Amino acid sequence: MNKPGWILLGLALGVAALSGCTSAQATRVKPWQRQYLADETMDPNRDPLGTAMMDHVYFSREAAQGGRGVGGAGCGCN
User: Which pTM value belongs to this model?
Assistant: First the structure.
């Protein structure tokens, strides 16, 4: 590869390496933004019929059920 090719490759790798950087301060939820997280659409159990239907699908396909509540220590005992 010639010199301009190496420079272009180095620039592309540099941009790719720096594109995922963020500061810890930017990822925190501010107190005035919590209203959006408390919205009904953010509740995973907002549709009880849909949740029951998906539980039935998981049970039918994978022969597994439960796992939505608080469990034990990960050993399978409740």
Answer: 0.34
